[in-house]
Write a structure and sequence with these properties.
The chain is elongated, with a radius of gyration of 20 Å. It is built from 8 helices and no strands. The two termini are about 30 Å apart. It is mainly α and about 250 residues long. It has one domain.
Length: about 250
């Protein structure tokens, strides 16, 4: 991928390359995130049983490590997607596109911090040398606490990712070179992320996973569109030319 500035003189092929690359990264992110953030924790973490969780982590250490590695892949893809979305959407409104970058990067960095607590459960249940003063039961409790703190961090920083999604959805809706319905879906997914965070903090009983359903639909729709259709290059170049003339 070249790093030259994108202008209205850019070729249709180069524009589609950015779009298709975003589609590929989006697909990898969906698969890696589904495995690392959904499947593996569901398979290994027993929320109210520290001993059972520790036993599953110890007996399935390889799965635990692969789950964490999958998250790292997802984070790398998200960083790349952030850049590509900015390059594609800055012609619509550069200030909002840049603001979306900030929110997404804060979200990704926050998730990375939270995942550090997640991975810390492994050396805790393994009885790292500096933890030999603790009993096995205490280590199991500490490991489960570390996993819960990881979940809290993810819940908090989901908000930043959600605001970034609202901004990107708005820009896609206004772009003209991507379907309006995808922009709407992405904005709704962002609202869901934000609602999930605030309900988790203020009214946990209302913090339903259903609030995140639009995110899955939006991710699949956007990824599929970018892979199959890409962007309308002619309309994209019109937007860039208009931005250059201002």
């Amino acid at each position: 991928m070249t790093t030259r500035p994108i202008t209205s003189e850019a070729s249709a092929d180069s524009i589609q390359m950015y779009a298709r690359t975003a589609g590929v990264l989006g697909l990898i992110s969906i698969v890696a995130g589904g495995f690392g953030e959904a499947y593996v924790p569901a398979a290994l973490v027993v929320s109210q049983d520290a001993a059972a969780t520790a036993a599953k982590i110890i007996t399935s250490e390889s799965l635990f490590r692969w789950g964490f590695t999958a998250y790292l892949v997802e984070a790398l893809c998200d960083a790349g997607l952030t850049l590509l979305f900015y390059l594609l959407l800055r012609a619509v409104r550069k200030d909002l596109a840049l603001l979306a970058v900030f929110f997404r990067l804060i979200g990704t960095a926050g998730f990375a911090m939270a995942q550090t607590f997640y991975f810390a459960a492994l050396p805790i249940v393994g009885g790292a040398d500096q933890l030999r003063a603790f009993s096995p039961e205490q280590l199991h409790a500490l490991a489960l606490l570390s996993l819960k703190v990881s979940g809290y961090g993810q819940s908090v920083f989901t908000m930043f990712y959600g605001v970034g999604s609202v901004l990107l959805g708005y820009l896609m809706y206004r772009s003209g070179f991507l379907p309006k319905f995808i922009g709407i879906l992405l904005a709704l997914s962002g609202v869901g992320f934000v609602a999930k965070t605030f309900t988790w903090a203020l009214a946990p009983s209302y913090s339903s996973p259903l609030l995140l359903m639009p995110a899955g639909v939006a991710a699949l729709a956007l990824t599929g569109w970018l892979l199959v259709k890409g962007v309308d290059a002619a309309k994209w170049k019109e937007k860039v030319a208009l931005a250059e003339s201002r």
